[in-house]
Amino acid sequence: MEHRTATLAEADRLMTVCNSCRYCEGLCAVFPAMEMRRSFADADLNYLANLCHNCSACYHDCQFAPPHEFAVNVPKVLAEVRNDSYAHYAWPAALQPMFRRNGLWIGLICATLVALFLFGTFLWNGAGAVFSAQTTPENFYALMPHNVMVALFGPAFLFAILAIYMGGRAFWRDISARDMEDGAHQSGIDYARAGHDAGRLTYLDGGGDGCMNADEQTSDNRKLWHHLTFYGFLLCFASTSTGTLYHYLLGREAPYPWWDLPVVLGTVGGVGLVVGTAGLLRAKLRQYHDVRDDTRFGMDAAFIAMLFGTGLTGLLLLFLRETPLMGILLAVHLGVVMTLFLTAPYGKFVHGIYRYLALARFARERRGEMVPQDA
Ligand code: SF4
Ligand code: SF4
């Protein structure tokens, strides 16, 4: 079968070997999904790659792993296919090159936006107002009115949602095209099952023992760090959403006292983000090197750094909001959050969307809703 890239061709070769062997079928969702196919088109490989959680269990269990002549390294090749798929489906196509040297791009955008927010804050308010804004009842709205924040962040947020939706839709259509044409039915149960598996990271446990590290010890810590990061992010988002509802529905303006819901959600979420991302970076550095896609380390590191920066600057802003540093911290925090919004569709952020969609399709296949493939 013809493939778009050499990496996809290699993934096809490996899946063909694995489909004959099937020793790893109990480890995760990839192998049962693979066994439902007799051949592997690009869309199938992108689907399987996004089901893989890179736990590395199948590499360590494999009798055909290097130095065997078959050179089977499923985690590494699927990681490469998965990382390529983010760029392949990204919208608009003109921004797909951002996935090359992704860490550099995101670093440059973040530095530029933080500098712009700092420059704008000082230019608009003057240094005296910036360093004394914490003394006014309006606090940070004295430096940047709420309507200005909405005018800046609203379009950035909506653009990110649109771009992520378009990319996810292209991925979904590609991996489901054949089944949908033939009338396979995707039900609400499949989406709920995918939500359960994504929320629990069901397949990030190496078949039960945890991920293998460079010191050849298994550990489940990656799952823990990922949970802290993911749920920390959700809590921070809930904090911002609650603050918006307070502002528009209840007419209550920030800053809120420490015990109020937006602050409690933001504090717990921020701590989760900072601790979780620090743990994820450590786990990434300790991961068994043979199974990593080192060519995309910059993309992974940039995503982790953006989430860490969002959590850390948010917490600093919260705890130092009654000091003269508040103005500078506000500008830095807004620059980091704006970068997170604008770059979300063009970085590792999209892995959560693609993985959820792949799990939703897997849930459908597991129910038997799949059209049998011709040889
Ligand atoms: S990874 Fe190796 S052991 Fe596992 S199914 Fe594939 S060929 Fe068999
Ligand atoms: S690395 Fe883990 S999740 Fe990926 S295919 Fe192998 S066993 Fe499955």
From TrEMBL:
Name this protein carries in UniProt: Citrate/tricarballylate utilization protein
InterPro entries for this protein: Citrate_utilization_prot_B, NarG-like_sf
Record key words, sorted: Membrane, Transmembrane, Transmembrane helix
Keyword ATP-binding recorded: no
SUPFAM superfamilies, sorted: Respiratory nitrate reductase 1 gamma chain (SSF103501)
Membrane-spanning parts: 104-124, 144-165, 228-249, 261-281, 301-320, 326-347
Keyword Nucleus: no
